[in-house]
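Lecture 7 notes: from sequence to structure.
We start with the chain below.
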Amino acid sequence: MDTQVGNEIQRIMKQLEEDAPGVTEGLGALIGAGVGGATSLAALSSLGIAGLSAAGITSGLATAGSLVAGGMVAGIGVLAAPIALLGLGGYALANRRKKSRMLSALNVAIEKLYNIQRRLQENAYRYREELGALTSLVEGLKAKKSKI
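Predicted structure tokens for the same chain:
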């Protein structure tokens, strides 16, 4: 393959692969769960008898549980719900943003590869091998794009 074309393809592929999977989603979930935990802790300490003493915790759990017609055990679920919901929300938001960026990067990469392919087709008699490699690469990226 021509050195310039090969380098450009290598750069495009490296850019697509640099995004570490799971890091952004994990961070989003961590931030969401942290906010949910702080909210739950604040609710626990302010419901019932104020504070985080034994009496404060048990009365706070009982008060939170009474919101769903339950007791202290139901209160644990009520106070755990913001942690789970905000954690999942943070994960989903980060995942959606990451997929959007990846889709955008794939579109740019496919467009650049089409431009390279067009240039090569202008000189197809000289670049038959490169043209075949690019065609299969573009098809692979299209398949990856359809999975997102």
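Points to note: The first helix runs from residue 3 to 17. The chain has five helices and no strands.
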